[in-house]
Write a structure and sequence with these properties.
about 325 residues; alpha/beta; Rossmann fold; 8-stranded mixed β-sheet; 12 helices; 8 strands; about 45% helix
């Protein structure tokens, strides 16, 4: 009888501990991810294939011998960040700024330099390819996890990059090109008034496989794990404490409500990571905006460019959008 009592007590203790830890687990889902360094990618052949970089390690491997290694700083907390700056082949005051997503780094966006060369967009745009916090060469050397908050802190990194380009490179116009959480980074950068920035310099936006509604995505993931609403609410309270109550504003429609420049949305119906249903819901709220969309059948998540059946049309659509 005593053994049964002890066993019940142990099981109850485990259950209590689980429910005490669950809000923190959900909190970490929103706030952080494992650092993705260059070494992590180079040492894993599956990641090399996934990133689509083959044996390329820098823009010089794509023929851009004049590319520069850049150090810049996040706008509010001065986090030290790294990037490549690739000057246009003709003098230009416009920069195409690539923004990677979660569990990624600038190596993954580097392959789009092939598209720039093939379409001669590299005569019109300077290119900036950055590692944001917790990623690539911007990850802390001791690999301590830096919180990202589903793009909220990335937005401060983006702001720091744009300020650097304005002051150090004389850039005046920017096209922002974001992938997955990089898309939410763009939306949040535009929507956050506390960044005290001038968004009139943002010329266009391209988003590929966008994370378009953070609250809905996280809530649905929590529900699929059968997490009680009370536990979910407690986790979100922890997040909101850190980001000034901003969690429920992390949606495409909310952040872009005052933005009227052209937007190109690229996504697949089979995207398992940032499902199309969230983007479609946000687009319905944004009727009247200058938005172009290209929705394909079966490209998965951030794979439209790499998938042979869509590769040429992807390049054509991006090229036309950037030139018009």
């Amino acid at each position: 009888m005593k053994k049964i009592t002890y066993l019940v007590a142990i099981l109850l203790g485990i259950a209590v501990l689980f429910y005490l830890m669950l809000p923190r687990f959900l909190y970490s889902m929103v706030t952080e991810f494992e650092p993705f360094t260059f070494e992590k990618v180079y040492s894993d052949t599956s990641l090399i294939r996934h990133f689509g970089i083959k044996n390329h390690k820098t823009p010089k491997d794509y023929g851009y011998e004049n590319s520069e290694d850049i150090t810049f700083y996040s706008l509010l907390d001065s986090q030290k960040l790294s990037a490549w700056y690739v000057p246009a082949k003709k003098e230009s005051d416009s920069t195409l700024f690539f923004i990677h997503g979660r569990t990624s780094n600038r190596l993954k966006t580097m392959k789009y330099l092939e598209m720039m060369r093939e379409t001669q967009l590299d005569t019109l745009y300077n290119v900036f390819i950055a590692d944001f916090r917790n990623s690539g060469e911007s990850a802390n050397q001791d690999l301590t996890i830096q919180k990202t908050y589903m793009g909220y802190k990335f937005a401060e990194d983006l702001a720091g990059g744009i300020e650097y380009l304005k002051k150090e490179k004389g850039q005046k116009k920017f096209t922002l090109y974001g992938f997955s959480m990089g898309a939410m980074t763009i939306f949040t950068y535009i929507g956050r008034e506390d960044l005290k920035h001038d968004i009139s310099s943002i010329d266009k936006i391209i988003v590929d496989s966008p994370l378009s509604n953070v609250p809905a995505l996280i809530h649905d993931q929590s529900s699929s794990m059968h997490v009680p609403d009370a536990i979910f609410d407690e986790a979100i309270d922890l997040v909101n404490h850190d980001i000034n109550g901003y969690f429920n504003k992390l949606t495409m429609a909310d952040q872009l409500k005052d933005f009227d420049k052209p937007i190109l949305v690229l996504q697949s119906k089979t995207d398992p990571t940032t499902p199309l249903k969230y983007t479609e819901s946000e687009l319905k709220k944004m009727k009247g905006k200058n938005i172009q969309t290209w929705i394909v059948e079966d490209a998965g998540h951030v794979k439209m460019y790499s998938k042979p059946k869509y590769h040429k049309e992807y390049i054509q659509r991006v090229n036309t959008f950037l030139r018009n």
